[in-house]
């Protein structure tokens, strides 16, 4: 009888990682943790769910994310407005303030995990995706700004990625942006007739974002708009020059992109993106910037900070283009057996092999033929199959069959080893 239950499918834009794909994720995560540790970064974990107002304030009411991408709902159990985090920074800053982390020192911290945005799914754009989020809290820069960028260049190198380029801009300080904004709105007003609907709607709420348009009819207007850079004061320019000098010290090339504004409202001074042509339309692998006003805005004592986020799916897409998919054997040793006494003995031997550091699968399930078991053993990627049957048990030995030769060694394909020396033998030879 089949159940009448209508099968459930994953939500649109939310992907499963299946067993064959897991190794790429784990390898990348391990590489990333080592890379971050080499710069003194420590891990921090914050909840996936936060109060909605953390994000409306911390990201800005009129940003894309808050306007149309957040998974927000009312928790009917206690009537609270909640949101699945659409990015890490707001939550990391909330935790920093809540636990008073900056009272006597600055912190280099990071987190990795899922974030949620209700977007139109396509390559490189999902509704649940994953980020590596890095934050330098309490550092004023420009040294740390440059360090973060140099650090990213190192990651691309570790991963063997060459086609990623750096775009850089400075957003100055609030008063400089205000002066520029006034000039910009004036410019937009003058060209009102060519603005599309979205631009008209945004010209007073987020005019900088209007310049980010992909509408060809608006390109010339955007190109001729007043440049924020021309409104920067001496200090802002010095900060930016400080970053650029250090990037030149490290031999890192960059492109100045005066139109780079980023999606968050409270960025100031340094902003940057790493982009590639290898990912189709979704070419931004990493975006970051300084947010010296955010900690105070969210109720903390004013402190400078800068951070970035890398999209893991996009990074994995790039890695698979250079290195192919990572395949990892399921185990080192696969135990094949026939009959209940042999199965029970195999289970115990497997425990002893694991004590010795080997990864072992014991064939499970009733009455499979040797042939079926060997097929599974081979598919598992194991180096060696250990075979136990009545004959082997009677002579206190196991047959072993090498499925893959250890590098540079000639071994008999099949041999017999006494059970009391099996662990030592395999430990030394696998
Ligand atoms: P985009 O311009 O692609 O929408 P964004 O400015 O919204 O990016 P950020 O908020 O800076 O992106 O997020 C940092 C990184 O997270 C991006 O550079 C990208 O690699 C990744 N990312 C953002 N949105 C998605 C998504 N919907 N699916 C997969 N990865 C994403
Ligand atoms: Mg986006």
What would you say about this model in short?
By secondary structure, the protein is an alpha+beta fold. Helices cover about 40% and strands about 20% of the residues. The protein has 16 helices and 16 strands.
Can you give keywords for this protein?
single chain, binds adenosine-5'-triphosphate, 2 domains, 38% helix, 5-stranded mixed beta sheet, BirA Bifunctional Protein, domain 2, 430 residues, Rossmann fold, 8-stranded mixed beta sheet, alpha+beta, 16 helices
Characterize the structure shown:
Helices cover 38% and strands 21% of the residues. It has 430 residues and is of the alpha+beta class. It folds into two domains: 19-172 and 232-323, BirA Bifunctional Protein, domain 2 (2-Layer Sandwich); 333-429, 3-Layer(aba) Sandwich (Rossmann fold). β12, α13 (340-355) and β13 (360-362) form a beta-alpha-beta unit. α1 packs antiparallel against α5 (143-158) and α5 runs parallel beside α10 (234-249). The chain binds adenosine-5'-triphosphate (ATP) and magnesium ion. Residues 87, 117, 119, 124-126, 129, 131, 263, 282, 284-287, 309, 311, 313-314 line the site of adenosine-5'-triphosphate.
């Amino acid at each position: 009888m089949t159940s009448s239950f209508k099968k459930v499918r994953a939500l649109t834009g939310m992907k499963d990682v299946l067993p064959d794909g897991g190794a790429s994720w784990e390898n990348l995560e391990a590489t990333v943790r080592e890379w971050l540790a080499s710069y003194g970064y420590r891990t921090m974990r914050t909840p996936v769910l936060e109060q909605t107002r953390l994000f409306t304030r911390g990201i800005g009411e009129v940003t894309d994310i808050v306007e149309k991408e957040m998974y927000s709902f009312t928790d009917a159990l206690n009537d609270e407005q909640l949101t699945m985090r659409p990015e890490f920074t707001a939550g990391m800053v909330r935790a920093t303030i809540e636990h008073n982390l900056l009272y006597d020192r600055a912190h280099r911290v990071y987190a990795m995990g899922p974030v949620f945005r209700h977007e139109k799914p396509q390559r490189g754009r999902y509704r649940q995706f994953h980020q590596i989020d890095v934050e330098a809290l309490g550092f004023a820069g420009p040294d740390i700004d440059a360090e973060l960028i140099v650090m990213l260049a190192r990651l691309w190198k570790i991963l063997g990625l060459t086609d990623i380029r750096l775009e850089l801009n400075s957003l100055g300080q609030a008063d400089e942006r205000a002066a520029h904004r006034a000039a910009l709105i004036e410019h937009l007003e003058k060209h009102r007739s060519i603005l599309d609907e979205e631009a008209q709607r945004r010209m007073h709420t987020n005019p900088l974002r209007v310049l980010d348009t992909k509408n060809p009819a608006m390109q010339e207007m955007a190109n001729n708009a007043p440049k924020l850079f021309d409104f920067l004061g001496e200090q802002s320019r010095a900060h930016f020059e400080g970053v650029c000098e250090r990037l030149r010290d490290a031999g890192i090339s960059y492109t100045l992109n005066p139109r780079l504004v980023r999606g968050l409202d409270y960025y100031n001074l340094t902003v940057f993106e790493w982009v590639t042509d290898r990912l189709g339309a979704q070419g931004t692998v990493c975006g970051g910037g300084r947010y010296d006003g955010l900690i105070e805005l969210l109720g903390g004592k004013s402190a400078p900070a800068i951070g970035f986020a890398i999209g893991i799916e996009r990074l994995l897409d790039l890695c698979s283009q250079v290195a192919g998919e990572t395949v990892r054997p399921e185990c080192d040793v696969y135990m094949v057996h026939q009959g209940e006494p042999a199965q029970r003995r195999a289970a115990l031997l497997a425990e002893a092999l694991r004590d010795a550091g080997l990864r072992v699968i014991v064939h499970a399930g009733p009455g499979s033929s040797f042939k079926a078991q060997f097929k599974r053993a081979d598919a598992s990627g194991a180096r060696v199959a250990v075979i136990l049957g009545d004959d082997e048990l009677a002579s206190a030995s196991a047959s072993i069959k090498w499925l893959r030769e250890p590098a540079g060694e000639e071994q008999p394909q099949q041999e017999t080893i006494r059970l009391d020396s099996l662990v030592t033998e395999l430990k030394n030879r696998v």
